[in-house]
């Protein structure tokens, strides 16, 4: 990328060089400068509640066994055998006290420690020749959690996750902490789309503008109580810390009435009142905004929506969590989970799951509408003409960069960050500005650890 600074400058003013959505060189930089540093979501603690439970997740090509050890601690262990590099664990999830490498049979405890080598004495001279004790599968350089959400970073000096999330944590609680018990997950469903990973992240962060066009049919069949998709323009988008999202404007009413309008039963509303701060409650009860889709930089997104699930006027909310896992410049693996408050009534959980599947599961109606756009965009972005085109991502800005509407004042929006009513691409620009900040910083030489034959860890 010869004119990289020029490219990043264009991105920062909201004019997006079209080829960044399908470009080998850009993808190489994302690998080297972004995914090597940012906090990346890999799972939720509720997926591995018991010692020995594990899931296998990736950050780009790096596969990690995310396991809860006998000491209840969650670890992310690089899924590569210390011997000849075979993947130690081939299952996607399960329960195991040990992992045995399929190649030559070295075995590791679920905390990563090497405990077994076939023919240890004959082949290595026993403990005197090769001490097993000091050997462990490589841990992820950094691991941290928030509300049970597990993130890893390839940067051992990554800032604490809470600092990285910043004020976005305020909004994360609506999705992941509706009671003291937090959420439980079902899934993930996993599928691949021939689309660049950034497109979904941008869409979920702030694209309220596409709803009336792309999702017309979903509204026409009456899946939502709101008769018109244009209703989205009454909501606002917000950006805070390292994430941002969209909201719907709720009809007038008290906090309880508004949460009931969204479809929450009273028992759940009571628990929300216990765990949410006065400001978090005010955003709904006083300001009348309810969070909908959102993204945390770089590739974690959330959905909260409330369709009709049965033949009545009643709606019911669902929450979904997903990652846009890059496979290449033109391909993304989507991991999509259904999330629900662990204390929710069982009947609610069942209907909420149905609501999720109808809308955003692998065959969900929204899913299908959205992806066709993104695949088409990606394939066109890979051609030569796309290199001459700057896409206009300046919605909400005037020529002189002043905003079309002023930001919401604190008395109308109780959350942190900056919020604007109506259509705008504030959040897409925020997301890509973060992207540009990462891409312009050259990677420091990464510390590599080689485990020598004698069992000594050597830092080069
Ligand atoms: S590669 Fe794992 S035991 Fe040889
Ligand atoms: Fe959509």
TrEMBL record:
<dbReference type="InterPro" id="IPR043266">
    <property type="entry name" value="RHO_NdoB-like_C"/>
</dbReference>
<dbReference type="GO" id="GO:0051213">
    <property type="term" value="F:dioxygenase activity"/>
</dbReference>
<comment type="similarity">
    <text>Belongs to the bacterial ring-hydroxylating dioxygenase alpha subunit family.</text>
</comment>
<dbReference type="InterPro" id="IPR015879">
    <property type="entry name" value="Ring_hydroxy_dOase_asu_C_dom"/>
</dbReference>
<dbReference type="InterPro" id="IPR017941">
    <property type="entry name" value="Rieske_2Fe-2S"/>
</dbReference>
<protein>
    <submittedName>
        <fullName>Aromatic ring-hydroxylating dioxygenase subunit alpha</fullName>
    </submittedName>
</protein>
<dbReference type="Pfam" id="PF00848">
    <property type="entry name" value="Ring_hydroxyl_A"/>
</dbReference>
<dbReference type="InterPro" id="IPR036922">
    <property type="entry name" value="Rieske_2Fe-2S_sf"/>
</dbReference>
<keyword id="KW-0223">Dioxygenase</keyword>
<feature type="domain" description="Rieske">
    <location>
        <begin position="39"/>
        <end position="152"/>
    </location>
</feature>
<keyword id="KW-0560">Oxidoreductase</keyword>
<dbReference type="Pfam" id="PF00355">
    <property type="entry name" value="Rieske"/>
</dbReference>
<keyword id="KW-0479">Metal-binding</keyword>
<keyword id="KW-0408">Iron</keyword>
<keyword id="KW-0058">Aromatic hydrocarbons catabolism</keyword>
<keyword id="KW-0411">Iron-sulfur</keyword>
<keyword id="KW-0001">2Fe-2S</keyword>
<dbReference type="InterPro" id="IPR001663">
    <property type="entry name" value="Rng_hydr_dOase-A"/>
</dbReference>
<keyword id="KW-0520">NAD</keyword>
């Amino acid at each position: 990328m010869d004119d990289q600074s020029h490219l990043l400058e264009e991105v920062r003013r909201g004019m997006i060089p079209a080829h960044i959505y399908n470009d080998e060189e850009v993808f190489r930089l994302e690998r080297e400068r972004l995914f090597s540093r940012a906090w990346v979501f890999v799972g939720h603690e509720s997926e591995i509640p018991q010692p020995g439970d594990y899931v296998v997740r990736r950050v780009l090509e790096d596969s990690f066994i995310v396991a809860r050890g006998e000491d209840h601690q969650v670890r992310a262990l690089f899924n590569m055998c210390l011997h000849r590099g075979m993947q130690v664990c081939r299952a996607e999830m399960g329960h195991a006290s040990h992992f045995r490498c399929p190649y030559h049979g070295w075995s590791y405890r679920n905390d990563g420690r090497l405990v077994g080598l076939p023919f240890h004495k004959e082949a290595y001279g026993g403990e005197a020749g090769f001490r097993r004790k000091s050997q462990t599968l490589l841990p992820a350089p950094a691991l941290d959690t928030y509300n049970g959400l597990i993130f890893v970073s390839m940067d051992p000096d990554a800032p604490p996750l809470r600092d990285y999330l910043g004020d976005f944590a305020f909004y994360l609680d609506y999705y992941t902490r509706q009671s003291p018990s937090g959420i439980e997950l079902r899934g993930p469903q996993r599928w691949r789309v021939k689309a660049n990973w950034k497109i979904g992240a941008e869409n979920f962060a702030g694209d309220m503008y596409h709803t009336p066009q792309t999702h017309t049919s979903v509204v026409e069949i009456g899946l939502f109580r709101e008769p018109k998709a244009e209703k989205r323009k009454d909501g606002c988008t917000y950006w805070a810390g390292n994430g941002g999202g969209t909201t719907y404007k709720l009809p007038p009413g008290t906090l309880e009435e508004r949460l009931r309008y969204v479809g929450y039963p009273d028992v759940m509303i009571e628990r929300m009142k216990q765990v949410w701060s006065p400001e978090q409650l005010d955003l709904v009860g006083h300001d009348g905004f309810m969070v909908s889709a959102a993204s945390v930089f770089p590739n974690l997104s959330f959905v909260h929506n409330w369709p009709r699930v049965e033949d009545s006027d009643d709606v019911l909310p669902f929450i979904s969590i997903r990652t846009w896992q890059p496979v290449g410049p033109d391909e993304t693996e989507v991991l999509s989970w259904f999330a629900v408050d662990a204390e929710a009534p069982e009947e609610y959980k069942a209907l909420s799951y149905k609501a999720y599947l109808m809308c955003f599961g692998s065959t969900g109606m929204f899913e299908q509408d959205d992806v066709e756009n993104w695949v088409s965009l990606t394939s066109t972005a890979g051609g030569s003409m796309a290199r001459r085109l700057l896409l206009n991502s300046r919605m909400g800005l005037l020529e002189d960069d002043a905003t079309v509407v002023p930001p919401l004042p604190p008395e109308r929006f109780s959350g942190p960050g900056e919020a604007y009513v109506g259509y705008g691409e504030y959040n897409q620009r925020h997301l890509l500005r973060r992207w540009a900040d990462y891409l312009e910083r050259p990677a420091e030489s990464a510390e590599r650890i080689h485990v020598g034959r004698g069992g000594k860890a050597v830092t080069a």
